[in-house]
Amino acid sequence: MDIQTFFSAEAASQRNLEGRNVLVIDVLRATTSMITALTNGAKTIIPVESVVKARAMLSQFPKGTALLCGERGFDRLEGFHLGNSPMEYNRDAVNGKSLVFTSTNGTRGVTAGLKSDTMVMGAFINFPRPADYLVDLKKDLTIICCGTTGYFSLEDAVCGGMFIHYISKNLRTFTTNDASEAAMALFRRYRDRIPMMMETCENGRQLSSMGYHQDVAYCSQIGKTDIVPISKGNELVALEPKL
User: Fold this and answer.
1) Contact in structure between 225 and 130 (CB atoms under 8 Å)
2) 19 has a pLDDT exceeding 70
3) Do 216 and 204 contact (CB within 8 A), yes or no?
4) Which of 126, 180, 165, 170 is nearest to 4 (CA)?
5) What pLDDT sits at residue 235?
6) Paired residues of 212 in beta bridges
7) pLDDT tens for residues 146-170?
8) Which long-range contacts (CB under 8 A, 24 or more apart) does 169-178 make?
9) What's the rounded Cα separation, in Å, for the pair 190 and 210?
């Protein structure tokens, strides 16, 4: 398996996506929130890049069957039902609903990943389930660490390194690009200090300063759920469990 990592959605070109599987990671907070939503019974998630498209997409659903979700600059958008805090995506709020979701960084990675053969979403909270699924597929892998407005984010790189480390232990042979090696090195540095890393990284500090301490702690949990969002057309649904 060839494992290519990119530290922003913009860095991954189409040739790094077509004919490959893709793992999208935006730990703080988009992929964590979408994983949480599906864990709590959301029917489907429709990722869109722009606020205008999100509002237009919502109008296509019968009233009361879909929610408008997402953020810009960490804050919930005006008129949206939910923001980007995973704490909002509880069962009472999302069970049985379709979610139209747009975020500053995560949905850029997701919409890029839709060009691949199969896209799944990862975060600390659903490790290692996406890795097990991707190993079973036996196909080259691109990991998109979504970053922040096109720039590197430590938490996404460490999470990506955790997945690469785990996947590599389950392969006889594999190749990597330099970013994959860097991600693994960062994971080895922080593997026993994930909560501390999350608190001290730029996005963790920013969220905490805005009162989202609980989000940072929640997003730091490893293996909280087995749910894996997987692409189905232009939507995300929960991967069916193994029988």
Assistant:
1) no
2) yes
3) yes
4) 180
5) 95
6) none
7) 999 899 999 999 999 999 999 999 9
8) 170/131, 170/132, 170/135, 171/1, 171/135, 173/1, 174/1, 174/2, 174/3, 175/1, 175/2, 175/3, 176/2, 176/3, 176/4, 176/5, 177/3, 177/4, 177/5
9) 25
The C-alpha atoms of residue 39 and residue 235 are separated, in whole angstroms, by 16
Interstrand relation of 229-232 and 235-238 (parallel, antiparallel or unpaired): antiparallel
CA distance 128 to 105: 23
- pLDDT for the residue 13: 76
Taking Cα atoms as reference points, which of 224, 45, 243 lies closest to residue 124? 224
93-150 per-position pLDDT tens digit: 999 999 999 998 899 999 899 889 899 999 999 999 999 999 999 999 999 999 998 9
How far is residue 19's CA from residue 21's CA, in Å, rounded to a whole number? 7
Is 2-232 a CATH 3.90.1560.10 domain? yes
For 208, counting Cβ atoms within 10 Å of its Cβ (0-12 exposed, 13-18 middle, 19+ buried), the class is middle
* β 98-102/66-72 pair status: parallel
The span from the CA of 163 to the CA of 159, in Å, is 7
Residue 243 has pLDDT above 70, yes or no: no
Average pLDDT over residues 12-32: 92
Taking the CB of residue 174, how many other CB atoms lie within 10 A of it? 16
Q: Which two structure tokens, joined as six digits, stand for 142?
A: 């691109």
Distance CA 204, CA 201 (A): 5
Report the residue count for the chain. 243
Domain spans, the chain:
2-232
Q: Among residues 13, 65, 70, which one has the least CA distance to residue 47? A: 70
CB atoms within 10 A of CB 51: 17
